[in-house]
Amino acid sequence: MSRQFTLAVTVVLISTTVQAEVAPQEVAYGEYGAIDTSLSGAPGDPASGAEIMANRGQGNCVACHAVGALDEVPFHGEVGPPLDGVADRWSEAELRGIVANAKMTFPGTIMPAFYKTTGFIRPGDGFSGKAGTEPLEPLLTAQQIEDVVSYLMTLHEN
Amino acid sequence: MRQTLRTGAARVMLGLAGSAALATGAIAQEANLVIDGEIEIVTRAPAPDHMENVSEIVSGWEYRSPETQAVQMDDFENPGMIGVDNARADFSAAMGPDGQSCAACHDNPESLEGARAVYPKWDETKGEVQTLEMQVNECVTERAGAEAWNYTGTRMTEMIALISSVSRGLPVNVAIDGPAQPTWEQGKEIYYTRYGQLELACANCHEDNYDNMIRADHLSQGQINGFPTYRLKNGKLNAVHNRFKGCVRDTRAQTFAPGSPEFVALELYVASRGNGLSVEGPSVRN
Description:
Chain B: Residues 1-28 form the signal peptide. Chain A is mostly helical. Chain A is 33% helix and 0% strand.
């Protein structure tokens, strides 16, 4: 395979991915908050998802949720339910909806929306305390959401 | 957390002991926090009537580690008391064109005993709710004719720590009715508003989730009876409006300014959620 051909294929793949990505304002939530298709247009990477969940600067999911499979990561919180066995309780579409904007599934939940960019009260510029301009950057990118969802789908009981 | 568990265990034992223990009441009210062996601090009390969703109010001291708790039990160990000593010297320092000082009107800091417990409070002359900081600055600018102190600056925060220290052990008792009520209502609305990109209200963490862990932090009720607070985290006395500011910032929101009408209202409301706890400032937290 020539280098030119490889480059061409790569370009096609990238443009396909860009076209398929769903912007935060355009996400179609089901009646109960599920999102049927990948937000990035690509499958998720569970290994990356695990890192995002543990990283304080990214998802930091363990700040509120205990995850047995991530027990090497210190200090799991107890604000939200433990996520062990979550793949048995929810479908991929439901988990995607909950990670993207949990309030579509659980109205009033404390859980922040990780793929929402507008409609906030006094939105800030990150953690600066200064005013931000909507649309803000989402807390996680479309692909990061997919990575987290793909990791959650590995969390079966036993 | 261990302390809370221990307290919890003690309460279970009280429950097992049955009505005899409950009838005396004395055991249940025994102070866990006694400063220098003499100032008894109420760290748990029945919630004031206006609180709809909480039955017991709890000082932030209860949520800290035994090591941190111990620091507050001894004024020689409490680094916040250094600020109190600084302010004690400042109390009689001359300021303004006529060389006025706090002591010129108030004799000594002890004469202000009780003040911390009832602030913020309605000021008839000004026609607004005033925090203790606003009152100090009124004295500094209008009585002494000096430059106003920075609202959350070291000098102000140390003076507030001094004024608090002489009220330690007295119950917080801010008025929420009468002319103060609209400000209190405003503060309540702020308390329940979900700000910022994380869409978090004070209530999400400090009413719905106190006693839960959020990562390595043990969530408290966000009581402010211990302010100013010496935080081990930043090694200084912290003014309550700076703490508010930090919390709002952490919701990825545009904060309010220290001394702003919004934070004054919020301070009145949050203080009222602690009516019945003791004044603790300067407390020690992590």
